[in-house]
Amino acid sequence: MVGFLDFSLLRDFFSLLLLQVSMWGSDSFLVISPSEPIVAMLGMDTVLPCHVSPAMSAENMELRWFRSEFSEAVYVYQDGMEQVGEQLVDFKGRAELVKDYITEGRVSVRIYSLRISDSGIYKCFFKKGSEFQEATLELKVIGLGSGPHVFMVGPEGTGIRLTCTGKRWFPQPEVQWKDAMGEKIPSLSEVETQDDDGLFQIEASLIVRDSSKREVSCSMKNPFFGQEQVETISIPESFFPRTSPWMTAFAVTFIILGIFLGAVVFLAWKERQEKKRAQEAQTEKEKESKDKGRRKQLYQQDWRKAKLYADWRKEQFETVAVTLDPDTAHHNLILSENRKQVSLMGNAPQNCDASVRQGQGESETIFSVLGQNCFTTGRHYWEIEVNIGTEVGLEPRWAVGVCSDTAERDEWFVESPEKNFWVIAYNKGVLFTHLEFLSLRQHPQRIGVFLDLEDKDVSFYNMVDGSHIYSFTGITFYGTLRPYLSLQGAGTYVTICSASDDTENYPESSPKNHLKSRDMGVAQEANPLLPS
């Protein structure tokens, strides 16, 4: 392995020697310049050296130093003399050729009184006959300006403000504050500006609050040259602001007072907001009350046509305390002691769907009962509550309304106006009349029955939300009318509600969108009573 390396080095040496010999026998040459940047001080002189290899005389060569473009000549030597015609104006009178060793091919261009603008890339060009070569140089001009100068501006807050200034630096220097232990302190602020010559003026500020750091230094260092200049300042301890006990007490008192005032303002604002909300709520309530009064007034003016507002409609009717008549009850029904509730016996036969069989013409027994109350004139109102059983068995069925005392109720019968029955019925989750199915948002549990013998009308309302269910209008009554109930299904029972059971939690009546009537004109005539 060692022998192989020796052989490689020997081969490279002979190759270089052959190259040199071949160049000595011809006009070929290389131009060589410094590989590192040339660093020079602002205002001083410097040289930009180049030489040819192999060594040969450069007296009869064309020599040129230029910037980025060939025409930007710094110095031109041709025909054994300086050619000033192509020289840049900035270098006239400031550049000359150093040719002490020109016979050996070593020459330089000296530039006097360096400027910041002289920094940058240069190229040296050598031409002999038709052969020419060039090399690149870099010149860095640095300026170690004046300063740093540190001085005290004066007290600021709980410390002392210091300022460090420096002028005519290039490039921008690195500024660093340090305490007596050499620990770095970050600047509060730094401001840099450049003058017309491109030199930097810098001002750095620092606030010293720790009285133990009475000795502070400021340094400025050129990042290229690495030269650093430092100035130190000592701050007398007496210069640091001292906190008076009275000042501390005042500050604490001021903070407490501020918190107290803030709390007072907040509470006052909160009280105003609450009063404002209460006033807005009162205004809204008054507006709602006025609107409700206006709607009620319209309702009272023509309440007969409006199928809305069950609670207002009650004011026009007489509340009736209905009790059930045991003499009219089917033997499979059980009445409560107060005759306000009816249910089905546990061993009662469970019929099939009576409503369906009615449509098919088949007969099934209907378990019904009448109220003891009899009506021939006037306007009457009562409420019932339906509770559907959940026991296993046949689907529950019930019907509520009025019927004539002349209506036939033996075994099986049809609950229709033609048979003197005006009822709404429920079976298998569907509410219906003798003519149609009723599409409601929810099935009613508490139902209000409004019997108007004056206007020949029977209406049904959902008393939980006040919505209208159905109305029979233009009725021709025969004989005396009585409350009517029928039911079927284990666990199902119906209760007559007394006046004292009138719920206080019903929502305020409002117009509903599911009016049902045999007279469709009634709903249309009720529209003017809707709230605007």
TrEMBL record:
Domain Ig-like residues, every copy: 43-140, 156-234
Superkingdom of origin organism: Eukaryota
Pfam families found in the cross-reference section: C2-set_3, PRY, SPRY, V-set
UniProt biased composition (Polar residues): 502-512
Database matches in SMART domains: IG (SM00409), IGv (SM00406), PRY (SM00589), SPRY (SM00449)
Signal peptide span: 1-28
Keywords, alphabetical: Immunoglobulin domain, Membrane, Signal, Transmembrane, Transmembrane helix
Compartments (UniProt record): Membrane
Zinc in keyword set: no
Membrane topology term: Single-pass type I membrane protein
Transmembrane segments: 246-269
Compositional bias per record (Basic and acidic residues), positions renumbered to this chain: 276-291
Gene3D superfamilies in alphabetical order: 2.60.120.920, Immunoglobulins
Location of the region described as Disordered in the Swiss-Prot/TrEMBL record: 276-297, 502-532
Family classification: Belongs to the immunoglobulin superfamily. BTN/MOG family.
Listed name of the protein: Butyrophilin subfamily 1 member A1-like isoform X2
Source organism: Acinonyx jubatus
Top-level taxonomy: Eukaryota, Metazoa, Chordata, Craniata, Vertebrata
Gene name for this UniProt entry: LOC106983468
